[in-house]
Amino acid sequence: MALKSLTRRIALGLAACALAAPAFAQAQEDQDKMTPMAIPAQPDAIDLGTGPLPGAKATESWHRQYGSRFARNVTMATLTPFLPDPAKASGAAIIVAPGGGFRTLSMDNEGYDVAKALAAKGIAAFVIKYRLNQTPADMAGFEKSMAEMFAGAARAPLPAANRAAMNLAPQLEDSKAAFRLIRSRAAQWHVDPDRIGMIGFSAGAMLTMATALSTDAKPAFVGNIYGPLGSMTVPADAPPMFAGIAADDPLFGNRDFKLIDDWRAAKRPVEFHLFEQGGHGFGMYPKKTTSTGWFDAFVRWLDMHGWLAPKGK
């Protein structure tokens, strides 16, 4: 009887798995699909004062995908603070720039989730919702435009980083405004104005590198997470840089990484992590690949440079 009972339980279990598999596949498909949503309340977001995007016709909208929230057609730039427990605060700060091809922003995975994790380490973090290139207002048109953009990006030669930076006028204006705002409120937010860095993801990494080249923002350090790593002119006072990318990144993983050599040639501090797997856009998503460890490595790098402790300690 015991054997019959066990056999029956196994049969029922297999049947349940057979029924669950399509359901799981459907759930995964639903999660991967872009689903429109209402613009969430953002009570702590601060207007950066750079004005509306010139010539904008489409208005800001949000959607869900991969279990994360995305913003698009952003026409007014904002900065959202995530401040650490005063008992843990180091005085250092980081501006977090989400990616999305300058057409959308991965607000959770490459924005809020990163900022919350940094604040837990004693770093004041600020998510910048910078202005974006306009896309079709309807979801179908937007999806098509994104597919075309990423397909083209994977095939086309990438412009040198310093030339590409010239095409980011509105976004760079937003980034510089973010640095000015934080420095103007340094006392209020208990931030050292000389210890403000920036980290960006994909397009956000491109904006971060453009900001590092600017003469008036002066980040104390920068993080380039799965952004392009092509050659660029590195100034003598370039900030320390942390870079991470997966070798199987379909956009930038099969290109050269001469930016690392350029940073070293300029005798500026640089740390580079090439993960075997991880794809593009891994951000704070938990994955089985070693790319998930980028955040811990970044925190250790910050600690090595003394940014996790109050100045002078």
From TrEMBL:
Keywords: Hydrolase, Signal
GO molecular function: hydrolase activity
SUPFAM superfamilies per record: alpha/beta-Hydrolases
Every BD-FAE-like domain range: 169-217
Residues making up the signal peptide according to the UniProt record: 1-27
PANTHER family in alphabetical order: AB HYDROLASE SUPERFAMILY PROTEIN C4A8.06C, PEPTIDASE S9 PROLYL OLIGOPEPTIDASE CATALYTIC DOMAIN-CONTAINING PROTEIN
Protein name: Alpha/beta hydrolase
Annotated organism of origin: Sphingobium olei
